[in-house]
Amino acid sequence: MRRLIDPLARAAFTAAHKALKLGWFVRRPRTFGAHALALTSDRKAILVKLRYAPGWRLPGGGRGEDEDKAEAVLRELREEIGMTAHGRVRLSCELDEVTDWKRDLASLLVVEDVRYTPRRWSWEIERICEAELDDLPRDMSPRAARWIAAIRDAL
C-alpha cells in the first residue's frame, strides 16, 4: 500500500506546490520562515527530503510575522522529524531572500543536542537523514547549501 501512496502523495504535493508558486508570482507576498540547523549530540546535521521539492533541506517552515522564531523552529522540528528533546537554541542569522517570487525573511537557528523519533509516515516529509557538516549529501537543495554556509560562518 505504501508503494502506491508515496508516488501519489509526491504527485499531489508537487502539483499543489506549483499552484502555490503561480499564486506567489501574481501576489509577490512577504513571508517569514524559521529553519534549523538541527544537530545531534554527535554534531551531525539532521536533514529532510520533502515530497514536493527536490534535494535535502534544513527542517523548518513558515512562521507568523510576530511569532517567536525559536518557538516556530521548535514546532517545525516536532512536526517534521518528531523531535522529542533538544539543547540550546540560538539565532544564527537572518537572510532576506527572494525565492519563488516571494520576499522571504529566513531566520536560521542552530538547535543543539536534538533527539527525535521519526514518524512512521508523513504527508510532507519523505525521508530524514543525518550527515556530517563536512560530508553533506550531493543532492542538497541550493538554498539549504547557502543557508548551511551562512550558519557555519557564525558557528
Automatic annotation (TrEMBL):
Q: Which residues form the Nudix hydrolase domain?
A: 29-155
**GO MF terms held by the record:** hydrolase activity
Per its UniProt record, the required cofactor names are: Mg(2+)
Supply the alphabetized keyword list: Hydrolase
Q: Does the keyword Hydrolase apply?
A: yes
InterPro entries per record: NUDIX_hydrolase-like_dom_sf, NUDIX_hydrolase_CS, NUDIX_hydrolase_dom
For this entry, the protein name equals NUDIX domain-containing protein
| Protein source organism | Sphingomonas lutea
What is the phylogenetic placement of the source species in the record?
Answer: Bacteria, Pseudomonadati, Pseudomonadota, Alphaproteobacteria, Sphingomonadales
